[in-house]
From TrEMBL:
It comes from Staurois parvus. GTPase-activating protein for the ADP ribosylation factor family. Gene3D superfamilies: Ankyrin repeat-containing domain, Arf GTPase activating protein, Arfaptin homology (AH) domain/BAR domain, Pleckstrin-homology domain (PH domain)/Phosphotyrosine-binding domain (PTB). This is Arf-GAP with coiled-coil, ANK repeat and PH domain-containing protein. It is found in: Cell membrane; Endosome membrane. SMART domains: ANK, ArfGap, PH. The keyword Ribonucleoprotein does not apply.
Amino acid sequence: MIWLIISVPFRLSLVLNFNEICSQSYRAALEEVEGDVSELEQKLDKLVKLCIGMIDAGKAFCSANKQFMNGIRDLAQYSSKDEVIESSLTKFSESLEEMIKFHNILFDQAQRSIKSQLQSFVKEDLRKFKDAKKQFDKVSEEKENALAKNAQVPRTKQHEVEEATNILTATRKCFRHIALDYVLQINVLQSKRRSEILKSMLSFMYAHLTFFHQGYDLFSELEPYMKDLGAQLNCLVMDAAKEKRDMELKHSTIQQKGLSADDSSYECNADAENGVVMEGYLFKRASNAFKTWNRRWFSIQNNQLVYQKKFKDNPTVVVEDLRLCTVKHCEDIERRFCFEVVSPTKSCMLQADSEKLRQAWIKAVQTSIATAYREKSDEAEVSKQKADKKPSISNTSPVTETKLVKGESALQKVQCIPGNTKCCDCGLPDPRWASINLGITLCIECSGIHRSLGVHFSKVRSLTLDTWEPELLKLMCELGNDVINSIYEAQVDKIGVKKPQNGCQRQEKEAYIKAKYVEKRFVDHGRESALVARKKSLSERRNDSRLSSTDKSLGAEENSRTPTRLLGRAMTAEFSSEGSRELLASTVSSNSLYEQKDEKRDSAVFQELDTKKLPPGPQLYQAAYEQNLPAMSEALAHGAEVNWVNTKENNSTPLIRAVHGGSLVTCEFLLQNGANVNHRDAKGRGPLHHATVLGHTGQVCLFLKRGANQHATDEDGKDPLSIAVEAANADIVTLLRLARMNEEMRESEGLYGQPGDETYQDIFRDFSHMASKIQKN
């Protein structure tokens, strides 16, 4: 017999006899050991899970602490103007950041000591114990089966007896080995259990010791600074208490005086450094049908009246230039304290909170108007002095003057025309406004008077603030103040009327301008002097740089090229933001922009125009064909009807005649003076039909921009698009299709009366620039 003493957990010893290995006491001891190991596993699993929860909570705490530290740092940056707060908060945030690092180290150590070590013990050592138990249970069952089989063998069957005996012997031997291994695993587990648990807990406690030592050292270094800050804080508290007492004293003083927020706080300051003359709340009457009143923050600044709905909103300009406005009281409405600011284009009804405020606002507007005029006069005087110091340019060399402004702004290009450097009506230097249908330059005050005449007499536009289309710019360069004054002021000296000068009263200027343009009192109905001035102007323009030999050769070269027609692409074009531009670039050839002029001019007509005095209507009609803008202006001044019908030539109008003349600028001049772009001749063809038939691409573009009806059909039932398709003119087909697509898009989106897609406008704008650059007038 073999005897073995085994140490079992919890101070339990067993003496095992392998012949009695299946005794009840042995099985009870094993079950007790197995129960202890199972309970140990549960305890360790629970401890590991609690450790994981603690670590996760600690990391969440560190994350929240870090956000809190970032908030302190943001507050320090916000308090950059207060050095004490900024420095203290920065130092505190740095200390808290160090503490966060220490916390992270502590949680990392807890993860290594508790979680990792105990999880390894559970997963490795306890797993080995379970595997040994499985093998022990299996071999115990095999031994029981061998014993049962050995007992069942009959005596008479000797060979079966021997076989059962051998199996039983082998099974017992295997059982002994497995039982020894199982008992060994139990003892190893018990001894390792003690070391692993104590080792992990001791490491965890040392981690806490290190953490608290680091925190203590950190705050020991910070403690002197905190004491100094506490002393400063006491001083700050006393200063705050003193300031509070002073504020309470001032508050009580103000209450005793009874000073309320009255109108005295609103004063007009025309010399304010920020340009704001006056500001405050006013009620504004809306221009809608309900005439609602809304309270807005108004201000007068930089010679403009603007308002804001909210403080951060961009200001909305009510009046762009107060010099063009007048202000007056309004006593004919139900509300009190109302006044009105009237400009040439609109009026704005405003209401103040009291009568004093209303008077203050009216005074501020009037002061701004006077100041603006004074500043303008000073600027004009300075400009005049600078001009006197500069070397003068001879009037006999317009070519050099034109070249100096080549490629520069619209203002410079227009002012280089003879007479345009001064206002056409009062002579003020450096005019910044223009009348586009008359072709003259104006000062700010005269432009305001022209606006009051109405657009059927004068269409005013700014040379610096507005965007100028190329055909309008060419129109301005074709006329000028000298040409127009030779027509509209031909009889000034004979009649004895004194022309107003700079500095005259507005009423005097207004009376003169109305007599000049509305009543046409100074026009020479003999027209001899105007014809002479016109011939002189035409002679000067022939010497201009625009008709230099270089430009002529360039025009001849452009005329010699054969245009490329891409009808298929034009017919299948899609109207999109990028596709339209690519299609335009590929289909519109530069030489197609050049309008072929009819060289077959009737010389007899020239002789008749020079020697005979045609009636105003026929003169306008013939001058439109000859591209003679001064003669057209003269005919209009003498009362020519802009839509005069020539019954001898299929009821053609001057605009249709201008189409045959081939000039883009002539058509623009007639349109600006009220020509009907949709008037049709006896064959049912309007200007757009004629431009399409002649292949004048630039004129087609102009008429489409001015609202020509491309759906109108002639007596043959053809509209401009069908005519262009038959002529295989890809450029005009492209323009007509783009215009039709844009019209369909506006109708589908309900954008009636609006220009439509921005891409469409950009394409036509680019096309106009190209056409005007190549067009020869």
